[in-house]
Amino acid sequence: MPANHRYSDADIAAVYRVIYERRDMRHFLSDPIAPDQLNRLLAAAHHAPSVGFMQPWRFIRVRCPDLRIGLHQLVEQERLLTAKALHEREDSFMKLKVEGILDCAEVLVAGLCGQREKHVFGRRTLPEMDLASLSCAIQNLWLAARAEGLGMGWVSMFAPDAVKALLGMPADSHPVAILCLGHVATFYEQPLLEQEGWAARQDLDGLIFENFWDTPPCR
Ligand SMILES: Cc1cc2nc3c(=O)[nH]c(=O)nc-3n(C[C@H](O)[C@H](O)[C@H](O)COP(=O)(O)O)c2cc1C
């Protein structure tokens, strides 16, 4: 018999619960996050897997109100451009709330650090592995936040060079996410995009192949 490394039923249930109940939040209360709680969430990000342990990410905690306003303006500019690029869906896109930067307790800008090419392990043939590693860190933070009752929203609509300039980021760094973190009145029952009729999660069956590309699994 193999050793039983399994968690207890209650612990397993808690893991799946946080996965299914995590939501991308855009509506926040302004109540502050306690410093030790924020530290726990950042430590969760810190414990995410990263290729070759390169930890290619940095989080900038944006505390200055003017910077927060500046980020909000950049997102608003990109929101309008995205709406235009959507042509016939422009009007319905404009009704979506795609960020909560001015309302949330904490704004964290997550980015890839500079000098990533010196990390050969894992990244030589697939430079995207740095981005994958950052995504793991963000997801850890997201799940930990949900478990602690805090909401997080991932905002990706911004011109990267403008965010870089605003936050004094090095030339070879790259901002990836503006993360809105904070207390919420309630968590959405379903993903907001689904609630608003914009899009829905695709069926798992269409996303899993067997052996060869485009070959559906026999189940
Ligand atoms: C890489 C990434 C970028 C995203 N960027 C945005 C964004 O700019 N604005 C937004 O409203 N939601 C954004 N989202 C949230 C997705 O729309 C959301 O995760 C999806 O609708 C599923 O909802 P759920 O996270 O609540 O399950 C982003 C999510 C990811 C993973």
Key features?
globular; 4-stranded antiparallel beta sheet; 4 strands; alpha+beta; single chain; binds flavin mononucleotide; 219 residues; 7 helices
> Would you count the extended β strands for me?
4
The overall average pLDDT, rounded, is 96
What molecules are bound to this protein? flavin mononucleotide
Structural class: alpha+beta
The span between the termini is: 28 Å
Number of helices: 7
Q: Widest sheet: strand order?
A: 1-2-4-3
SSE succession: HHEHHEHEHEH
Biggest beta-sheet profile? 4 strands, antiparallel
What is the radius of gyration computed over CA atoms, rounded to a whole number of angstroms?
19 Å
Strand content of the residues, in percent?
5-15%
Instruction: List the quaternary state of the chains.
Output: single chain
Which stretches of 5+ consecutive residues score pLDDT under 50?
A: none
- Which range best describes the helical content: under 10%, 10-25%, 25-40%, 40-55%, 55-70% or over 70%? 25-40%
The shape is: globular
What's a concise summary of this model?
The chain has 219 residues and is an alpha+beta fold. The protein has seven helices and four strands; from the N terminus they run ααβααβαβαβα. The longest helix is centred in the middle third of the chain and has 21 residues, at 65-85.
Summarize the topology.
Blueprint: H1 9-21, H2 35-46, E1 57-62, H3 65-85, H4 90-95, E2 106-112, H5 129-147, E3 151-155, H6 160-167, E4 174-182, H7 192-195
Antiparallel strand pairs: 1-2, 2-4, 3-4
Bound molecules: flavin mononucleotide (FMN).
Residues 23-24, 26, 98-99, 154-157, 191, 193 line the site of flavin mononucleotide.
